[in-house]
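Lab channel / #folding
Pinned by the channel admin:
"Please post every new chain as: sequence first, then the structure tokens as a reply. Keep commentary short and put observations after the output so the thread stays searchable."

First post following the new format, from NK:
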Amino acid sequence: MSTIKERRPAVDGWFSTGSGGEGVRLLGTRCTSCGTPYFPRNDLACRNPGCTGPKDGSELEDYAFSNRGRVWSYADARYKPPPPYVAAEPFRPYAVAAVELETERMVVLGQVVPEVGVADLEVGMEVELTEGTLYEDDDAEYTVWMWRPVK
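Reply from TO:
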């Protein structure tokens, strides 16, 4: 008899799983003065040299990023990354994509869903965020955000 494993984010606070129907979203911060977004989150102060807001960190607020974008670049990850990266055993090659987010116009790197390889990707392709399993242990599945092509 198999037991249902708990799903846990591999990195706490970097993404939400889409409760409320809004889909998977990357989580970061944004400057309330100039609108500059930060992923991963920045809690110190706005680093935009053109920002005229306060420089004590009080101008930063929680921010959920757009969950769609276009492939800016991509590559094939054929070798298991070194620690502290934790990979599933046995290791299976995967594709990674650098995606320019639709609203923020910044590029975020992430794995591509397992059923999509580099032969299926192209620069400019529209993709969206989803949640996927990075690895499992006896207690849980550890999840990350992944990119998947929009159909």
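NK: The beta strands are 6-9, 15-16, 25-31, 37-38, 60-64, 68-77, 94-101, 107-112, 126-136, 140-149.
TO: also worth noting, The chain has a mean pLDDT of 90.
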